[in-house]
Specification:
Oligomer: single chain
Helix content: 40-55%
Number of helices: 8
Length: 273
């Protein structure tokens, strides 16, 4: 009888061993095929590269945990106590790392809602620059004065985000103050002519030049013209450089703060006495 029980026990152990090996093999195949399939789905969805890495890591962790629990269960180990300890540790870690977890949650939100992507020019709070990278915990912005600003993702998702690169076109608004003695129509004609001569400025919608304010020392004219997002700053800077010579050629003065002082004649009479 002992030999029969031993044969049965060995048979059960062999069966468990084979099951464990098959479980590990199936887990490896699921992980390999799942990552490939997820990559195709994420590429079709147009998600950022950071989302690829994040989803792959999460998927790998889930598969690993499921395989390990399956192996433990097949070997006859009580996984309920393991799950209890794991849940307690998870709660303790979550409490200790609540700020970091808020950044992780912010990273997940950014990756899947995509308010911006790598290479976009954005403004968040007091920081503006090109997005270098989007990680799970933080986003790196490269400013125009060659600084790298690392912003926690939790701070980004709780702030207003301005994405200057999200649209293919942008409107250039150029304000200039001319003197009250200048010809408004002539000044408007000069500003529109400069816009028409620049091939980077779109003809449709057509540029407009409007009077926007009667200020204390100037009449404020504003040119509104459309251009491609990539050409925005070059158009703005080149237009500003060309504007003053064009005004000078037409005798239009650019206003500056000034004050006229008028002396009362009676004051002079008092001083003479």
């Amino acid at each position: 009888m002992d030999s029969v029980f031993k044969v049965i026990e060995n048979s059960i152990m062999l069966q468990r061993g084979i099951t464990v090996v098959l479980t590990l093999l199936v887990g490896w195949l699921v992980l390999k095929a799942g990552r490939k399939y997820l990559g195709v789905l994420l590429e079709k969805a147009g998600l950022d590269k950071a989302a690829f890495s994040f989803v792959n890591h999460v998927f790998a962790i889930v598969v690993f945990v499921v395989v390990v629990l399956s192996v433990f269960n097949e070997l006859g180990m009580d996984i309920s106590s393991f799950l209890t300890v794991f849940a307690a540790l998870s709660a303790a870690v979550a409490l200790a790392l609540k700020d970091s977890l808020s950044n992780v949650a912010g990273g997940i939100i950014i990756m899947f809602t995509r308010p911006f992507k790598s290479g976009d020019f954005i403004s968040v709070g007091d920081h503006s620059g090109l997005v270098d990278s989007i990680d799970l915990m933080h986003t790196v912005i490269h400013t125009y004065d060659n600084k790298s600003v690392i912003i926690p993702n939790g701070q980004i998702t709780s702030s207003s985000i301005v994405n200057f690169s999200s649209r293919p076109t942008r409107r250039v608004d150029i304000k200039i103050g001319i003197g009250y003695d200048s010809d408004i129509d002539r000044a408007r004609a000069v500003m529109l002519k400069l816009a028409a001569d620049d091939p980077r400025i779109f003809a449709d919608p057509a540029p407009v030049c409007v009077l926007t304010e009667y200020a204390d020392s100037a009449i404020i004219l504003t040119l509104r013209a459309w251009t491609s997002t990539g050409a925005y700053w070059n158009v703005f800077n080149d237009y500003m450089l060309a504007l003053k010579p064009a005004f000078d050629a037409k005798g239009i003065s650019i206003a500056y703060p000034q004050m006229d002082v008028h002396l009362d004649g009676r004051l002079s009479e008092v001083n003479d006495k």
